Amino acid sequence: MTIVVGYVPTPEGEAALTQAIAEARKSNTTLLVINSSKGDALVDNRYAQEPEMHGIEARLAAHGVDHVIKQPVRGHDAAAEVLDAAEEHNAELIVIGLRRRTPVGKLIMGSTSQRILLEADCPVLAVKAGMAG
Amino acid sequence: MDVFSSLMDGFATALTPMNFLYAVIGVVLGTAVGVLPGLGPAMTVALLLPVTYALEPTSAFIMFAGIYYGGMYGGSTTSILLNTPGESSSVVTAIEGNKMAKAGRAAQALATAAIGSFVAGTIGTALLAVCAPIVVEFAISLGAPSYFAIMVLALLAVTAVLGSSRLRGFASLGLGLAIGLVGLDVVTGQARLTFGVPLLADGLDIVVVAVAIFAVGEALWVAAHLRRTPLQVIPVGRPWMGKKDWKRSWKPWLRGTAFGFPFGALPAGGAEIPTFLSYVTEKKLSKHPEEFGKGAIEGVAGPEAANNAAAAGTLTPMLALGLPTNATAAVMLAAFTQYGIQPGPQLFESQGPLVWALIASLFIGNFLLLIINLPLAPLWAKLLQIPRPYLYAGILFFATLGAYSVNLQAFDLVLLLTLGALGFMMRRFGLPVLPLILGVILGPRIEKQLRQTLQLSAGDPAGLWSEPIAVGIYIIIALILLWPLLFKLIRRNRPAAVPAGVAATRSGASEPTDASGGSASHGSHRATTGGDGDGGG
C-alpha cells in the first residue's frame, strides 16, 4: 500500500506534501511523490527543477519516510498522471493541494483536483495552502 | 542626392500614424518570435507575405523591418534567462548571459543586451544610410557579367562558409535552384520541370515556398519532437545597470558594432561569425578575464551589439544591390518582387521615398525596441509558457491561409504540404535552410543576368569575364571554394613550421568554440532547433 501525493512547487503543493508526509509516517507506508508536466511548453513553472527535487528528497529522508519520486513527462495532464500512479501502486490514499478557482477559469482550463476527486478509486485528502500540520 | 534630406523625408513618411502603428506591430511581433526558439523573423515575414496584397509597400516594409530588428532583440532574452538561444545569432550571448543570470545578475545582462543592441542598431542604421548610396553609385556602373559574378559569389559564399557541412550546404542550394527553375523559361518559353502539370507553368510562388519551408517544416519538426523536460525561467525584475556595468559595457558595444556591420554587409556575413569574433575579442581584451565562463558582462554586451549591427549591415547589400545574405533579407526581397518592385542598384533611384522611409523606420524601430524590451523583458519570457501545440496550430493555420490566398488554388496547398515535408526532411538530416531559400529567390535573377550576358556576347562564354570586376570576383570565388583544399596542403607541407605563437592563438580560439559547441548541443536537446528555423537570422 502506498500514499500518492501530487506535488507542484506552489504553496498548495507544499501543503499537500507536508500533509502527505504526516500521513505516511502515521500509517508507515511508502510515499509516492508525483510531479509531472505535459512537456509541451518550453517553460513550465509547475514542473520542479532538479535542485528543488533534491531538497524534497532530503526532506523525505530526514523524516524517515520510505519514498519514491516520479517526474513523468509523457504528454498526459497532471490528473491522469496522479490517477495512473494511484491505480498502478494500489494506493490507499491520494493527497492533493486545492486552490480557489473562478468558475470561468475552471470552465476554460479544467480542474486537476476536481478530476482527481471524482475519478479516484481510493479516498482523496484535499489540503488548502497553509492548512497542513 | 543629399542623404540627410532624403532621410528626413523618410522620417516624415515613417512617422505618419499608420506607418508608426505598423512599426509598433512589427517590433512587438518580432520580439515575440525572437523570444520563442524555433520561430524566427524569416518565418514571420514569410507568413506575412500575403498581407502585401492589402498593404501599401511602405507600411509593409516598415513592419517587416520591425520584425527583423525585433527578432534580434528577442533572441537575447531567451538566451540569458533560459540558456536556450531564441535565434542562431544569440547562441554566443547564452554563454555568458546565462551564467550572469544564474549568478543573480540577469537584470544587468538583459540591460546590457538591450542597450547594446540599441547602440549598435542605431550606429549600424546610420552606417547603412551612409554606405548604401555609395554602394549604389558603384553598383550602377556594373554590367550584367559583374552582377552575375557577385550573385554567384553570394550564393556560394553563404553555402560554403556558413554551416557545418559544405556537402549539406550545396545539397540545399541545389534543391533551391531546382525549385527556382520550375516554370516557363523567360526567354524561349519552354516549360521546365513542370512534369506536364499546367499549374506549374507559372513557377512556384515564393510565398508558398517560403511558408512551406519555414513554417510548415518547422511545425512538423516540432510536432515530431514535442515532449521535452520543461525548464524554468530564471526570475528577474526590471533590467537595470549600475555605473560599473556601464563602464564595462560601452567599449564592447562599440567593438561589437565594428565587427557586426561589415560582416553583415559581406555576401557571406550573417550574424553568427561577428558575434563569435566579438566574444573572443572581449575575452582577450577584458580586464576581468577570470570572470569569463562565470558571467562576464562584456561577453553579453559585445555579441549582442554585433548581431544587431550585422542586422543593419545585411540590409546594405539587400537595398543597394538586391542581394540578400540571410533568410529574413531573402524573404523581404521576395516581398519587393511581390509588389513588382525591381530590387537592385536602381532601387534607390526608382523607389527613393520607400527606401528612405524604411531606413528611417529602422531608427524608430530601434528606439521602440529599447522601450518595450527594457521594462518588459520578464513579461516576454512568459511567452515561453505557451503550450506549443496551440502555437503551431496557429502557425499552420496562417500558413495554409497565406498559401491559399496567393492564387486561390487548392493546388498550392498540395505544394505547401509537399514542400513542408521537404522542409521537415531537411531539418531531420541537418540541411541548412538558408541556401535553399537563397537559391529559390536568387536563382531566377542569376539566370536573367547570365542570359543577358550571353545574349550580349552572342553566346560566347568569354563574355562572362569581360569585365575586370567580374574577373576579380571569380578569383575570390575560386579562393573560397579551394580554401579548405589549400589549407590542407599547406598544413601537410609544413607540419613542423607552425610556430608557438600560432599554436597559442589557435588554442585560444578553440576554447570558445568548445563553449559555443557545448551550448549549441544544449540547445539542440532542449530547444527545438537552436535557431535553425531562421538560418542566418
Describe the protein's architecture and organization:
- The complex is a heterodimer of chains A (133) and B (537).
- Chain A has 133 residues and is of the alpha/beta class.
- Helix content of chain A is 42%, strand content 19%.
- Chain A is built from 5 helices and 5 strands, in the order βαβαβαβααβ.
- Chain A has helices at 11-27, 50-62, 78-88, 103-109, 112-119; strands at residues 2-6, 30-34, 67-70, 93-98, 124-128.
- Chain B is 72% helix and 1% strand.
- The model of chain B is unreliable at 497-537 (pLDDT under 50).
- Chain B contains 20 helices and 2 strands.
- The chains are: A alpha/beta (133), B mainly alpha (537).
- The interface between A and B is medium-sized, with 14 and 20 residues.
Number of strands of chain A: 5
Order of the strands making up the biggest sheet of chain A: 3-2-1-4-5
Oligomeric category: heterodimer
Supply the helix-strand structural class of chain A: alpha/beta
Q: What gap, in angstroms, lies between the N and C termini of chain B?
A: 32 Å
What is the strand tally of chain B?
A: 2
